[in-house]
Design brief:
The structure is a single chain. By secondary structure, the protein is mainly α. It has a single domain, classed as Tetracycline Repressor, domain 2 (Orthogonal Bundle). The protein is 83% helix and 0% strand. It has eight helices and no strands. InterPro entries: Homeodomain-like_sf (IPR009057), HTH_TetR (IPR001647), Tet_transcr_reg_TetR-rel_C_sf (IPR036271), YxaF_TetR_C (IPR054156). This is TetR/AcrR family transcriptional repressor of lmrAB and yxaGH operons. One of its GO terms (molecular function) is DNA binding.
Length: 163
């Protein structure tokens, strides 16, 4: 909190004026802003390609490129880490949940448009989201883009398995 105040060059009073519920409200506002950026990026990628499978590869390539350039995946990894802290606060947990539900909905809608049943589309969307989230956390701990690269190779087979 003190780093935010220092970087923004604001007083604690100013912060609490805009965020009267304190750190939790600030965190939720940050999460909501990141969620919008993340989901807009995913939607844009999925709208540029005719199938979910074709859209998934560039989405993963972008994550890999971002990780290799920055050593992290801004926004995505922050959401993952905050999700781990979500047990502390129900509103924070709900803010994290909204992101994952939206990502899964984007993927499932594209899969349904590709001809998958709704049930299979939701199974695949959940599996893809889990795989990517797990790979991002492994990238951070291993300091390597290898886990995301593996997911990008395995993903087509995962989708074909459920077809």
């Amino acid at each position: 909190m003190y780093e935010i105040l220092r970087e923004c060059n604001i007083t604690k009073g100013s912060l609490y004026h805009h965020f009267p519920n304190g750190k939790e409200e600030l965190l939720i506002t940050c999460l909501q802003s990141m969620h919008k950026t993340i989901t807009t990026d995913i939607e844009d990628t999925f709208n540029r390609f005719p199938t979910a499978l074709e859209a998934a590869q560039p989405m993963l390539e972008k994550l890999i490129t971002d990780f290799e350039r920055e050593g992290t995946i801004v926004g995505h990894t922050f959401s993952s880490m905050v999700s781990e802290m979500a047990s502390v606060s129900e509103p924070v947990r709900n803010a994290c949940l909204e992101l994952y539900v939206k990502i899964q909905r984007i993927i499932a809608d594209k899969l349904t448009a590709d001809g998958f049943s709704e049930e299979n589309a939701h199974i695949i969307a959940l599996s893809v989201t889990e795989a990517i989230e797990g790979a991002m956390l492994l990238c951070l701990t291993q300091k390597s883009s290898g886990p995301l690269k593996m997911i990008s190779q395995v993903l087509p087979n995962l989708v074909k398995e459920v077809e």
